[in-house]
Amino acid sequence: MLQIHPNARTTPAVRAEIARSSEPSGVLTRRFGVSSETIRKWRKRGPEDCLDHSARPHKLPWKATDEERAAVCALRRSTNFALDDLTLVVTPFLPHLNRDSVWRILKAEGLNRRRPPVSDRPVRGKGTFRDYDLGFIHIDMEHLPKLQTANGERRKRYLYVAIDRRSRSVHLAVKDDETERSAIAFLREAAKAFPSASPTC
Questions:
Q1: Which residues fall within 8 angstroms of residue 145, CB to CB, at 6 or more apart?
Q2: Which end of the chain is less enclosed by CB atoms within 10 A, N or C?
Q3: How far is residue 120's CA from residue 129's CA, in Å, rounded to a whole number?
Q4: Where on the tree of life does the source sit, at the highest rank (predicted)?
Q5: How would you write 52-75 as a 3-class SS string?
Q6: Taking the model in full, what pTM does it have?
């Protein structure tokens, strides 16, 4: 199928004729009703390259660093949030990422499809439905892959996540280790972020 821009004023046959012609540019502009810039363009390309090129960039630029992409993916695995919910959680921490950016990150890592959510409802006739109160916090920690730091060193880091199960508010922190000291520091941060917190693991 020929690749021709819908607003093009020349056909591939006309372009090839322009490319092969030795007539002055002024003569060709009057004959074909195009600008001298168009004449120069098709002469430069030659008769073998007379189709429109795609305007789409060969490589879409990422707005996120490797560490930010890893954090988005770790958060998806940890929470299994839908795209809109995940974007809502991510943007306060990474405001330069929009919904499309988050989706591209998930798509690149094969995480664009959510795993089937686990229902909180018990099997019929067994137990009761559990309704969490505001401030009931789930805390988790995800291992991030080895990433390059600002000084060029590659090391593993850890994403700490605190989620209010009722409001779905999230507090995040990336730390250099998974020691007791870092865990306690994150608990204190989460306590400030969720004043009425009742943490669980």
A1: 70, 156
A2: N
A3: 7
A4: Bacteria
A5: CCCCCCCCCCCCCCHHHHHHHHHH
A6: 0.50
